[in-house]
Amino acid sequence: MAWGVAPARPQAVKPPTLVAGAPQQTSLRKLLNSRYTTEQLQIGTYVGSEFCLACHSEYQGWKSTKHAMSIRRPMEQYSLIPGKGVVADYDRNGVDDFIQGLDFNQISSVYDPYKPNAPVLSVENGSYMITIGQVKMPVVFVNGGTGDWRERYGVRIPASDSPTGYSAEVYFSPVQFNEDSESYFAYKITNWYGANKQPIVQPGMTRAAIGAAILSSFSKNCVGCHITGIRSAGKTSQGEWVLKPYPAVLYQEDDPAYFDYDGDGLPDLMNIGCEMCHGPGSAHVLGNGDPAKIVNPGKLSADRANEVCGRCHNRVRSVPNKTYAWPYNDDTSTQWTPNTEPLASFFADNNSLWPDGETSYEHNQHYNEMLKSPHTTNPYQKLRCFDCHDPHQQANPAQIIPQRTQGGVTIRTSAENNTLCLSCHATHGPFASITPQMVADYAANVNAIGGAVSAHAHHPYGPERIMGLARCTSCHMPRVAGAEHESAIHTHQFVPQPPEKTLKYQAQGGMPNACGSTCHRERVNLWGYGIASNFLPWTDPVDVKTATKLMEYYGPQGQWWQTTLP
Predict the structure, then answer these.
(1) Contact between 216 and 207 (Cβ < 8 Å)
(2) Rg of the Cα trace of the chain?
(3) Smallest Cα–Cα separation from 4: which of 238, 235, 159, 165?
(4) Could you tell me how far CA 248 lies from the centroid of its own chain?
(5) In this predicted structure, what is the pLDDT of residue 303?
(6) Which of 36, 132, 379, 483 is the most buried (most CB within 10 A)?
(7) Residue-level pLDDT at 8
């Protein structure tokens, strides 16, 4: 595949270290003009979030979001700091497992079948390393590790025909640290070990041999949603998939979010920055902040605004050849930018679903779920992703908005006490008796609110308890994703999965239902059928008996809710 046409690279000199907010607009323009031609800047060049924050300092909170900390270079000075350094510490001794020199050949772990060639972690002269068999690989970046999910590691592999001695491409290693369980998972292990349990990567391999053998290519499968702006993407003559980001011009030297991804000696614009949602910002900077020269998703229609999030919060392949795993025209080497062409013309669906063909089996399929939900068609207001999630700050793990103004009333919002959902749903349907003013003063009106919600949910009102009784999201956003290496992922389809589906698809391994997934399978043994301790599969006698009983309440002849499956 040919390389895509991209703007000429800026002058290959190390950018100065500047503190965001210090330079004036004239200094910002001067700095850009020293790196790019006027034509490149006017047609749209990705300049980096530090330029945005220099003027829009009210959005500094973005730096603490998972978007801003998705991938970063491992640095000892940030060890065990979530979102900045390596957090893997399986034995909880206060030393990260790389610095500790964890050797999986010396402990019992998920890598036992691969001894004596199980991974070995280390730090050498400040560089984090992973060794498999006889091959030692430098860790280029850490992915995740933000405190509540999982941490993965991208590595370069020694290559005999490379001028640098290593592959140009970065590959996901088989080492994954699950933060919630503080344990390791063998991530896509068959990419690294053959059927004989021996390492696939051997000393002396060429770049072509590496590219053909190791399938966990970050540039081909992942990076399009983890960087801000694609300069070019393609397959090199040596057989490696390589993507080139835009280089950083304004950055701080010790910021781990900026590092040299493509090996050209310059730090790059990594992570999900301002321009990922607002489009390239160079013309906006040159135009003294002209709002007409930047995209404001808040002023777009709901459909167009949701595309901004949907470009990455969805499992897709590029079009027309399905080369990459993100929205991209791989024939013309064109990336999608907000509020230009329809997002749907840049991807082919690749979502992983349960047997019903509509419920997500894996994580990161929120956009596909939203498009199926009543929130995109209801007559009152089409929901936008940022009506519930704040892209500019990490007030809580899911970036739920801490407050919103509805009908002139400012409401402090939380998913745990239903104020987030009721900030919109008050005055409608089952909640017609609830006003925005009541939601805003939740404590004073909890009995009236609880009565209305409990009548709808047919359960006692205790949303802030561990069980989440009559919590809106417990039923409408239950756990559905079943991939074994992921934490619990909750649906954004907003329609509770009926118990009948668990029974209907038993021959295909069953599938979760909202009642069982949230409470009646793993937490509550109300009818004495027992407890299912593992999320997969859904074919245990406990699942069958529980789903059969639940259908008396939520099913074709349900006492509380009647359903009809297609």
Answers:
(1) no
(2) 25
(3) 235
(4) 22
(5) 95
(6) 132
(7) 42
List Cβ neighbours of 452 (8 Å cut-off, separation of 6 or more). Answer: 430, 431, 433, 434
- DSSP-derived 3-state class of residue 462: strand
Please tell me what DSSP assigns to residue 60.
Answer: G
Rounded to two decimals, the pTM is 0.91
- Tens digit of each residue's pLDDT (9 = 90 or more) over 33-46: 888 888 888 889 99
Exposure of 404 in the CB half-sphere (CA atoms within 13 A): 20
Cα–Cα distance for residue pair 509/537, rounded to 1 Å: 6
Q: Is the pLDDT of residue 84 over 90?
A: yes
Tokens of 525: 């043994």
- Across the range 380-406, mean pLDDT stands at 92
Cα-based angle 546, 552, 556 (whole degrees, multiple of 5): 115
Is residue 245 pLDDT above 60, yes or no? Answer: yes
Entry field: residues in the chain: 566
Q: In the predicted model, what is the mean pLDDT of residues 127-140?
A: 98
Angle made by CA atoms 407, 412, 414, in degrees to the nearest 5: 115
Residue 564, token pair as written in the block: 């009809």
Angle, vertex CA 387, rays to CA 414 and CA 53, nearest 5: 100
Both structure tokens of 464 = 């802030």
Q: What angle do CA 312, 316, 319 make, to 5 degrees?
A: 110
Please tell me the distance from the alpha carbon of residue 460 to that of residue 507, in angstroms, as a whole number.
35
Nearest to 52 by CA among 394, 400, 392, 305: 392
Here the tokens at position 194 are 């053959």
The tens digit of pLDDT for each residue in 160-215 reads 999 999 999 999 999 999 998 899 999 999 999 999 999 999 999 999 999 999 88
CA distance 241 to 325: 13
CB 543 within 8 A of CB 510: yes
Assign 485 a pLDDT band (cuts: 50, 70, 90). Answer: low
Question: What Cα–Cα distance (Å) separates residue 524 from each residue in 528, 532, 533?
Answer: 9, 10, 11
Among 210, 226, 257, smallest CA distance to 324 is for: 226
CB within 8 Å of 341: residues ≥ 6 apart? none
Q: Up-side HSE of residue 537: CA atoms within 13 Å toward CB?
A: 13
How far apart are alpha carbons 354 and 415 in whole angstroms? 26
- Per the rule left: phi > 0, alpha: psi between -120 and 50, beta: everything else, 301 is beta
State the pLDDT at residue 486. 58
- pLDDT at position 2: 31
| Structure token pair of residue 60 | 């500094």
Give the C-alpha separation, 398 to 383, whole Å.
17
Enclosing H/E stretch for 349: strand 348-349
pLDDT at 49 over 60: yes
The pLDDT of residue 382 is 92
